[in-house]
Amino acid sequence: MNQYVAFLRGINVSGYHKVPMIELREEMHKLNFKNVATILNSGNVIFDSINNDLKNLEKTISEHLEKVFGFLFRQS
């Protein structure tokens, strides 16, 4: 199992794209990620995954969160 950090940009900034961290953690768990933790209210997420294809992880996370929260998630 590999540990990753997702830097989700543009959320919870000046009242735009509000995402409660508890909901973000729940959605990451739905993607079968383990040991999910968020850092403050920043949108930075630490998680474990057996997937080692970074492009696939980025696509999976972005598409799922966009569908759930209704806006495009940019990652760095």
Automatic annotation (TrEMBL):
<dbReference type="Pfam" id="PF08002">
    <property type="entry name" value="DUF1697"/>
</dbReference>
<protein>
    <submittedName>
        <fullName>DUF1697 domain-containing protein</fullName>
    </submittedName>
</protein>
<dbReference type="InterPro" id="IPR012545">
    <property type="entry name" value="DUF1697"/>
</dbReference>
